[in-house]
Design brief:
This protein is α+β, with helices and mostly antiparallel strands. The protein has a domain of about 110 residues: Aminopeptidase, CATH 3.40.630.30. Helix content is about 25%, strand content about 30%. It has 4 helices and 7 strands. It has a 7-stranded mixed β-sheet, with helices on both faces. Helix 1 crosses helix 2. It is globular and about 45 Å long. It starts with 6 loop residues before the first strand and ends in a 24-residue tail after the last strand.
Length: about 190
């Protein structure tokens, strides 16, 4: 199998249709996503630009998007603002090639540099590949929401947590992402 890693870069609005195409089979054909209708490119752009703006990265091979990872706000209340939820999705031929790990590692570096402290991931059960990925990246299980979603039957969601950086005693406000991969100052 080809172990050449794909190029990683910041996702742009021009990538929205390709991102939507990567995500659509997860919505349409699985219960991994609890969405019932796959979003189109316009909705992906709206999500990418939601405030606070958080990183969206894509992996590409020969100019084609083969996967993406992004962060979103964990909860709406102000005290949660140093925490994010993270997700990664790949095309079928990209799975098992180290791309999800690489996307997540880039995403985590961006988030830490912006001042975020904790990342959370919800994994619809069963999903052994995602569980292995998250455990291998230092996530630890924090709990399971039982029968929390109904899509082709009832599903549990296991929640996992990963530290992005040590929690400061008095944190500074997390910064908005500028949309440029690797440009966030460390801090």
């Amino acid at each position: 199998m080809d172990r050449v890693l794909p190029l990683l870069r910041a996702a742009t609005a021009d990538d929205a249709e390709a991102i939507a195409a990567v995500y659509a089979p997860y919505v349409r054909d699985t219960s991994i996503s609890f969405e019932l209708a796959a979003p189109g490119g316009d909705e992906v752009v709206r999500r990418m630009l939601t405030e606070p703006r958080l990183p969206w990265l894509v992996a590409t091979r020969e100019g084609l998007v083969t996967g993406y990872a992004y962060a979103s706000r964990h909860r709406a209340r102000a005290a949660y603002r140093w925490s994010v939820e993270v997700s990664v999705y790949l095309t079928p031929h990209e799975q098992g090639r180290g791309t999800a790990r690489r996307l997540y590692e880039g995403l985590f570096a961006e988030l830490a540099a912006l001042g975020y402290v904790s990342a959370y991931a919800g994994i619809t059960q069963p999903n052994p590949a995602s569980t292995r990925l998250h455990a291998g990246l230092g996530f630890t299980p924090v709990g399971v929401f039982r029968d929390v979603g109904f899509k082709d039957g009832w599903h549990d969601v296991a929640w996992w947590q990963r530290s992005l950086r040590p929690a400061p005693e008095q944190p500074q406000e997390p910064r908005a992402w500028d949309g440029v991969f690797g440009s966030s100052p460390t801090g």
